[in-house]
Hints:
The protein is of the alpha+beta class. Helices cover 49% and strands 20% of the residues.
Amino acid sequence: MGFRIGQKVVYPNHGIGTIEQIEQKQIGATLLPFYTLRLAANNSLVLVPVPNASEVGLRAPISSGECELLLKTLADDFSSPANDWKDRFKDFSEKMRTGDIFEVANVLKHLTYLSHTKPLSFREQRMLERSRYLVISELAAVCRQPECNVTPRVEDALARACVKHNKRPAKVTAAGAVAGH
């Protein structure tokens, strides 16, 4: 998939950016085309080799029709994450690296729920903030609304997911202990 100058794109783990130019750069003996991408989050420039763009995870933002689907995903119930924070962090890191906003939304949902049940580790807290930013900024860009209008909708969806999750029947293990929460 090729992008054009002026097009909005999503760079995994960094969010929305705009293709400012497509330029040729000499790398050793090879002349390669690069996308010059301006990130909205911090106004920095990133160079992405055109042939590696899909491998890197550079993608077009979701469609406006997918905005409601993303909010619905945020509001849906979910399975309980791993109890061990290292396993959880590894799983969540992999999802964040995919660049798939629906995977990022699932990380946001899980970490939001966990943050209401116990204090998050420093790394999980940073991931919660990053996932929240990525979801809200993409929704705001696609829906052409300021983030301050999108944030309450995201928060409401997350609150509904947490309520649904709390209403799940607890699973009782063979040893008689309650699991699943």
